[in-house]
Amino acid sequence: MNLKKPGSSKPEPGSYQPVMPRNWWLQHRYFQIYMLREATVLPLLFFIGCLLYGLYCLSLGETQWQHWLAFMAQPWVVLLNLLAFSASLFHAKTFFELFPRVMPLAPPGLMIAGQWLATLLVATGLVLLLGGWL
Amino acid sequence: MSKTINIARYNPQTDSRPQLQAFQVESDNSTSVLDALLQVQQQDPSLGFRWSCRMAICGSCGVMVNGIPKLGCKTFLRDYPDELTVSALAHFNVEKDLIVDMQPFLTHLAAVKPYLINDDQSSQPHRQTPAQLAKYQQFANCINCGLCYSACPQFGLNPEFLGPAAITLAQRYNLDSRDAGKTARMPELNSKNGVWGCTFVGFCSEVCPKKVDPAAAVNQGKVASAGDFIISMFKP
Amino acid sequence: MQQLQQDIIVVGGGGAGLRAAIAAAETSPTLQVALLSKVYPMRSHTVAAEGGAAAVTLEQDSLAAHFQDTVSGSDWLAEQDVVEYFVKHAYQELVQLERWGCPWSRKADGSIQVRRFGGMKTERTWFAADKTGFHILHTLFQTSLKYPTITRFDEYFVIDLLVVEQQIAGVLAICFSTGELVQILGKAVILATGGAGRVFHYNTNGGIVTGDGMALAYRHGVALRDMEFVQYHPTGLPGSGILITEACRGEGGILLNKDGYRYLQDYGLGPETPAGQPKNKYMELGPRDKLSQAFWQQQQRGLTADYHGHAVVYLDLRHLGEAHLASRLPFICELAKSYVNIDPATAPIPIRPAVHYTMGGILTDINCQTSISGLFAVGECASVGLHGANRLGSNSLSELLVFGKVAGEQAAARVQKMSLAPVSAVAAQCQHQQTYISSLFADSCDDTVHAIRTELTLAMEQGCGIYRDNAGLQTCLSTLQALKIRYQQLKVTDNSKAYNSALLQHLELGFGLDVADTICRSALARTESRGAHQRLDEGMTQRNDSDFLKHSLAICQPDGTAAISWQSVTITSLPPAERHYGAKGSGSAGSSV
Ligand SMILES: Cc1cc2nc3c(=O)[nH]c(=O)nc-3n(C[C@H](O)[C@H](O)[C@H](O)COP(=O)(O)OP(=O)(O)OC[C@H]3O[C@@H](n4cnc5c(N)ncnc54)[C@H](O)[C@@H]3O)c2cc1C
Ligand code: FES
């Protein structure tokens, strides 16, 4: 199928080409939420940084480890990590809602509930394991 | 009652960019934006917009209403305050008033080979169970109105991106039990303007007037594309 | 003026035009096929068809039965050889569409599911949920993308046919995006421009269904046949006219008057069938004309309800249950919720009759050939002879496919042995049109397209509605004449080039006025009642086979009005008999219902 506009040998009358403004993502609530979701990566980066720093400290010995624990207990660090935690929950929520649409294996409600349940189980398992209860 | 409708007017012969013009229209409980535009056209016959079926099935009448892509015939004045703004669909070139150039959209549709590809020659119908039909049925309901393209910032930033409707159509045929053309369609979907151009903003599904859920189709396409890639790694 | 050359020119991108273009492209891969449409093909009004497409499918069904239903439905005005060809090829065409990907609804075992439809004796209607036309159109459009020899001219508006010595030579079109005239020469032209419903006020048709193709052919001397037969659909939404498909009744919906009474039993369609257990040809599944007429009778007796100033009756679907409605009639639920703010699961839908289908059209033979050599017509704009005085629901979608293929193949066969007309032969005609178009523009004009169109459609509704009489038709005719005079003075005040819809609407109105004239004059000439044409005048309320078992032909006179002449009907195997529905219809074999 020939999709070229057959009349295009004629001079086309002008047309207005819209340009995306730089702040397009501020223009609707929907795009703002999208950007917020994308931005969840920032606090998560901080959290990963903390973790890596902790591992590094552990390798340096007991005093450094204590130092790291103290660092982690500072209110602003706790706050940022709480933020990272809620950001990851938010991200998980959007992801879990997407998943049944991408892989429609069961009714969406069921799949969403299933994913949260699995997360809960894994998280509890990990806590128990790391806490030495298992 | 009377309402104000601001319309982004653009005449290529005289204007460099669209400009708002206000009109008064009479509105009752069932007045659609399309009805309002038809009223305006009686006041000013030079107003340009597309429409035909006035029952939300032909896909002609897409416009932005207060910045959100909508079908004019399925959007009712009753749901807006006394004033609203109607402009041409975003991310397409505006040709006149509310008429945009749909050619890029059609080119993208055609690029995904949207037809059954198989080489059986029987003269009898295929068998297809209701379950097999259900796999793709929703994706076959696209009316090509283009609202999803106006909702997609990735298409706005890169007009070469195949976009929600075209990828959905590819997926519609890929999922059809009668089709064997997936390998022919995947290169287009795997390409840089294919499924990976999508960052899952998800607004396309939000604005779709037929609940086709193009975002789901695109992301299913990503799964397929990733599968393709992994398989190709193990091939000599 | 831009000049282009093609082998075959298809005017119209609806079901008929697309099917014809594909058939032509498949016949010979060397032919250049142009597909012109004033809107993008998938916007064509075929998209709005909801119910389904008919073909003999089930074991217990037979070609003879489909033939009988169609002929008796037509009130014996169908061309029986055409009907025979049609019923024989319909199944094959629906299968072809299946093989192109149409998502037909299925039975549990994966075979095609068929449903009941009004006027059909048994289940033979294929459907794709309640969006059959939509799926047919999109399947055809998408399939057409496979053929590199089909060149689309989207948003090209044809304003004239180019004819040289009774041979077609091409078309003249306006390119909507630039406003330029384009001359396209071709060896064959297929008109597939759809119906003319929009010359009436209340109708189920989209805004583009303005009878253009009929007027194009008519102005070149081709007869329009059976134009008096205009089908009202009994169930349109009040105001907008948006169609609520017959499938609602097929699924078991019932019609109630303002007192909640199933009034159809009073008009020869009874006895009453239990709600939710529809029976073919009884009650709600009687033919459309009878149902619309019953509405009119109820309105006369004051038994219709009022909905915002429109007389209505009710379509009740509540007993079918929410789940069933959601799975079988999802589109209807959506329409009712949007346009009358009603949930069919909890409340009955107000409905009233609206013009739906033009049975008549461009006279063609069984090969879709018109009286101009090389000019073909197919689909709702044509009268190949399938529908006679009344079309059966779901026959027309199949018609688009069966005869679309015929037209495409016939056109392809013709062009192999033809050459293009020389440009010089059409130069004068093109120049004439160019001058005419230029003369239409002026800075101001007191009259408007909208005003004339509104008067036209109201006059048609009044004079050529569900029931007609001499006085009403005469009034309508004089209104039409007055409007034509006003039209000649009318000017286009928007002189912009790109996308000038004011100009196109002006031209559409001109087409509509011509078509309306043929409808009105044919209706005046037929002084009997048959199918969709019902006269109230004394001595005309019955079918009169001795005088009127024949087609009307409207032929354009030099003064632009129609002269009516008559053509005999081809009857092969089913001699005229009475049309019976309801209990009367279930008589012995041979009662020809
Ligand atoms: C609401 C509704 C529901 C229906 N349901 C059913 C059903 O269930 N079953 C059934 O069998 N039938 C049904 N019908 C009837 C059937 O849908 C139509 O008869 C059929 O679709 C007409 O198809 P077509 O191809 O002839 O014309 P259309 O689909 O109307 O196409 C006409 C084409 O011609 C083009 N055109 C017109 N004028 C010009 C011009 N001047 N220049 C260039 N192009 C032009 C248009 O752009 C368009 O592409 C229904 C009809 C309506 C309105
Ligand atoms: S006019 Fe057809 S979708 Fe709105």
Topology:
The complex is a heterotrimer of chains A (134), B (236) and C (593).
Chain A: H1 29-39, H2 41-60, H3 62-73, H4 75-102, H5 108-130
Helix pairs in contact in A: 2-3, 2-4, 4-5
Chain B: E1 2-9, E2 19-26, H1 33-43, E3 62-65, E4 68-71, E5 83-87, E6 94-96, E7 99-100, H2 103-111, H3 130-137, H4 147-151, H5 153-157, H6 164-174, H7 182-190, H8 203-207, H9 214-234
Parallel strand pairs in B: 1-5
Antiparallel strand pairs in B: 1-2, 3-4, 3-5, 6-7
Helix pairs in contact in B: 2-6, 6-9
Chain C: E1 2-5, E2 8-11, H1 15-27, E3 33-37, E4 53-54, H2 63-73, H3 80-99, E5 114-115, E6 125-126, H4 132-144, E7 150-154, E8 156-164, E9 167-175, E10 181-185, E11 188-191, H5 212-219, E12 224-225, E13 230-236, H6 247-250, E14 254-256, H7 288-300, E15 305-307, E16 310-316, H8 322-328, H9 330-339, E17 349-358, E18 361-363, E19 375-377, E20 382-383, H10 395-416, H11 423-439, H12 449-463, H13 470-489, H14 501-525, H15 545-548, E21 550-556, E22 562-568
Parallel strand pairs in C: 1-10, 2-3, 2-11, 3-7, 11-19, 18-20
Antiparallel strand pairs in C: 4-6, 5-6, 8-9, 9-10, 12-18, 12-21, 13-17, 14-16, 15-16, 16-17, 21-22
Bound molecules: flavin-adenine dinucleotide (FAD) and FE2/S2 (inorganic) cluster (FES).
Flavin-adenine dinucleotide binds next to helix 1, strand 3, helix 4, strand 8 and helix 5 of chain C.
